[in-house]
Amino acid sequence: MGRAGRRRGAGAPATAATRFGVRPLGGAPLGIGPTGRVPLGGVPLGVGPTGRAPLGVATAAYLATCGVGLGVRTGVLRTERVRWVHHALFVVTAVSAGAAVLALGVAGHRPAAASLLASAVPFAALTRNSPRTGPHARLALAAAPAYVGAWLLRGAPRASARQAG
Known about the structure:
Blueprint: H1 3-8, H2 16-19, H3 52-74, H4 84-106, H5 110-117, H6 120-126, H7 134-142, H8 144-154, H9 159-164
Helix pairs in contact: 3-4, 3-8, 4-5, 5-8, 6-7
């Protein structure tokens, strides 16, 4: 066997991953988990996304939206000329919450995903409610338990993650 074949290891075929220096986790071929099975979504069991980062982004967007809303409501912030900022934050909040629900579901944290999915109800109601009324603020805060529940339910590691470690 030639010198180039030994560098890649035991005559393994050159793939895009090996050409660019990507090594499989746990020694298994790319896309295959420690058990040799490829679960739903092609993410190997015990490795891959945990849903933590998307949930963090969704929570930060929600807190920023609530902060701007509270600032406007109390008169600390004046957004007459840039009202779109609060609307854009709301869109980012709703989209990031949806992405976090999807990421949590793929990562196997389905109870946390279901909890966060509950935030869709107050978000949908917010679009039909005047922002100059008390119910608007109460509806916005009604989504908070969904975020808290998602963090609490996501906190426990999955069984497959405990077994792989």
